Amino acid sequence: MPHTDKSDWLAIAATGQKQAAHILSFLIIGAGISGLGTAVALRRAGHRVVLVESQDGLDTAPEHARGIRLPPNMTKIINRWGYGDRLAKIGVVAPQVSFAHWETGEYLGVQSLSRDLVRDAGGEFFMTEHARFLALLLEIAKELGADVRFGSHVAQLGEDCRSAILQSGETLQADIIVGSDNIHGLCRPLLAPNDAEARSDNDFMTYTSVISADKVKANPELAELVIGSDEGFPNWFWFGDKCSAMTYPVNVEGDCALVVWLPDDGAGEVWGEVVDAETADNALAALKAEPRLRKLISLSPVMRVKTLSRLPLQECVHPSNNMLVIGEALHPAPRGLYFNHAMSLEDSAALGKLFSHALDHAQIPSFLHAFTELRHARCERMVALDSGSLSWITMSGPAATQRNDEFRERAAAGKDTMEPMEDDALSSEKSQAILDENREIFGYDAEDAADGWWISWGLPGERARGNDWSTNIELGMSTTVEE
């Protein structure tokens, strides 16, 4: 594993992160959000990091473009790490969400995003392009001294999961291997050989694209869907019968992300399948989509992928205690919704914070299993929330009619869609329950949770072992393992 030079240490020092007293070597497999985020988090704690990715670079192909929405529990991590200003340059803040009818385009209502909730959570609701967010994480990881190697495909792991053999024949050694290579990668099957039995498919597929601002502005009927105003940049949802769609700007120029959920007709499970405009339009036409949606989907290449979901693994640590899985490899959630990416960056933050307390090799098993303890219930709940959201936006029959009628009633009264009607105790109670849940979900702090574990369980364990748990070394004073 590579040494860290002085310039890297200076970059790490600027983050203000406490350095681990005992430096470990990590090999991360996969350059998605969880992999790159973990490279940043571990380098901030002073650990040595090599990240390998089988692709030759980040996927920036226009036909593979897609948006990403970052909730406050995700953006607060970037802010705390000191990169909030850089994030702000690649996207826009979402002030509200508007709703429309799938077939008619009828306006159903709007929900403003609570500024009190944002303030309390410590982060914003943010929108950008997936590739640009990955590029930001990659840039930061390299600045901090992570060794990122594209075009490096892992063929197999060593029996003790402390080494990886690349297709080139090179062998890489590490104290800990982090599998962030998604649901179809090498690492998850090592922990869940019968993974197919845990599938919880939802019979949907997701269409995604990013449409240039020039193409949108050339069609005046689309302007209100993406063009910013004094109130900020819009985010729209369409409610259909077993189908739904969403648009949102991904930058100040007005480039627009489109996400459509339709009944599955045989989409693959891996990102990258591009469908032609005629196929996409026919799919929407068959479900009587309103003209604006059909126009949007015709303006740019479209990817589609199966909207599968699987239960989070009960245990994410290999029996060797030398390898764990994170990100989508650990907790695949329905594609295109809110929490999949947020869970991945929370994984990174929690893992980095746990290992910032490293005093020796003997702590590795306890830190890895603490990660499972911290993340399982949280991720299980967030996957359930995304699955519930997919069911809610695609509901049909009387339940959908009731939802739409309630939205119309509130809109006519000048109220937000989740705002209770006057003299309606049940509506008020429901709205308060939703607000309380949002405060809890978006206010969650993955690093605070990891520090809480350390104070409650880690420190007492170190005292019992007779370790000098009070060690809090200065930069450059770390004890390192042999290269």
Describe the protein in words.
The chain has 483 residues and is of the alpha/beta class. It has a domain of 273 residues: 3-Layer(bba) Sandwich (FAD/NAD(P)-binding domain), CATH 3.50.50. It is 39% helix and 19% strand. α2 packs parallel to α6, α2 packs parallel to α12 and α12 runs antiparallel to α13. The radius of gyration is 23 Å and the shape is globular. The C terminus is likely disordered.
Question: Can you identify the CATH class of the domain at 6-92 and 129-198 and 311-387 and 442-480?
Answer: Alpha Beta
In total, the number of strands is 21
Look up the CATH topology of the domain at 6-92 and 129-198 and 311-387 and 442-480.
Answer: FAD/NAD(P)-binding domain
Distance between the termini: 6 Å
Average pLDDT reading: 89
Low-confidence stretches are: 471-483
Please describe the biggest sheet, giving its number of strands, its sense, and whether it closes into a barrel.
Answer: 8 strands, mixed
Architecture of the domain at 6-92 and 129-198 and 311-387 and 442-480 in CATH?
A: 3-Layer(bba) Sandwich
Basic shape: globular
